[in-house]
Amino acid sequence: MRALICDSYDGLDALRVGEMPDPTPLPGTALVAVKAAAVNFQDLLVVAGQYQIRPELPFVPGNEFAGVVESANGLGGVEPGDRVVGFVGTGAMAERATAFPGAIIRLPDHIAFDVGAVIPVAYGTSYHALVDRADLRADETLLVLGAAGGVGLAAVQIGKALGAKVVAAVSSEEKAGVVRDAGADEVIRYDQMPLRDGIAAATSGAGVDVVYDPVGGSATELALRSTNWNGRLLVVGFTSGDIPQISLNLTLVKGNSVVGVFWGRFNIEEPARSAENNRIVMDWVADGTLRPLVQKTFPLDEAVQALRWVADRKVVGRVVLTP
Ligand SMILES: NC(=O)c1ccc[n+]([C@@H]2O[C@H](COP(=O)([O-])OP(=O)(O)OC[C@H]3O[C@@H](n4cnc5c(N)ncnc54)[C@H](OP(=O)(O)O)[C@@H]3O)[C@@H](O)[C@H]2O)c1
């Protein structure tokens, strides 16, 4: 099969498109013909050897896909011909992929494959973060950093679906338009004004209750300082490249919490809750409550350009490969 191949942990320049053997599905593991695979920021970390899991070389990158089941191999709930989405960690950026039980979800007929491919990670992570980890309530204010990116835009939409006031922080006018379209109540251009001033203006000085932070760096402490009593800072990722060190007195004086989010491990530790979350997310996409945004699709041959698009901070929503 044709696939994007990572032969060494040297980042994007070392990737190539070529032939790999078809994956051999284990019993109870579906084999899927991939129609679309989303590009995640995490893929950049994985191919550079900077992610917490380093797959054995050579490997096929790609964390999530949409496609058609070729063989179910004893996996209950799906049959050959079924439309599905799957999340796999690696292996999605190829003509075929395998997915374990619990990591495969039926895709309703009216949702296109490219849209389906961007659902599992972004919406699964943001739903888990806001509902399970933060217990976000309808009378609260949510601040989303990196709000026009994959997980950020999902957090904006889910925050609105949960009834919260959503303040979205972004770095360009194009991204501001995207988060407004997604329902953000207030937008902060944190490339143009100090983040704390933006938060104060967006909340009339009231501060925020929950911070969704996929960015890290200096923004994290500034956001934490703007939380209210009982605030929660959701630690989602560090796209800025900087893992911040924070003085714990900030949590004492504000009575707030720093809350880690690790969706991949959540799926393993709490499979029943994960399946229920996935069902709710897919229902909300199917009925239009959530509207995943596919900015651009690239053929598999242009996979490196697609990953570079993400690395260059150009992505809004997600970009997708179509093998
Ligand atoms: N904890 C979990 O379970 C979990 C699950 C999924 C993803 N993640 C993590 O969440 C983070 C975001 O993932 P994603 O796929 O949504 O990424 P993405 O689509 O690339 O979005 C990331 C956002 O980060 C902001 N950003 C700030 N500095 C940046 C920089 N130097 N380079 C690139 N972007 C920068 C950008 O927004 P602005 O330009 O507006 O600032 C961008 O929109 C990643 O670290 C990923 O590993 C964590």
Summarize the structure.
The chain has 323 residues and is α/β, with parallel strands linked by helices.
Q: How would you describe this protein?
A:
The protein has 323 residues and is α/β, with parallel strands linked by helices. It folds into two domains: 2-119 and 292-322, Medium-chain alcohol dehydrogenases, catalytic domain (Quinone Oxidoreductase, Chain A, domain 1, Alpha-Beta Complex); 122-264, Rossmann fold. The protein contains eleven helices and 15 strands. Strand 1 (2-6) and strand 2 (15-19) form a beta hairpin. The longest helix has 16 residues, at 271-286. The site of NADP nicotinamide-adenine-dinucleotide phosphate has 29 residues, from helix 1, helix 3, helix 4 and helix 9.
- Count of helical stretches: 11
Determine the structural class based on helices, strands and strand pairing: alpha/beta
CATH topology of the largest domain: Quinone Oxidoreductase, Chain A, domain 1
Ligand kinds: NADP nicotinamide-adenine-dinucleotide phosphate
Tell me the overall shape. Answer: globular
CATH architecture of the largest domain: Alpha-Beta Complex
Query: What value does the Rg take, in angstroms?
Result: 19 Å
SSE order, one letter for each helix or strand:
EEEHEEEEHHEHEHEHEHEHEHHEHE
How many strand segments?
A: 15
Indicate the low-confidence ranges by residue numbers: none
Largest sheet: 7 strands, mixed
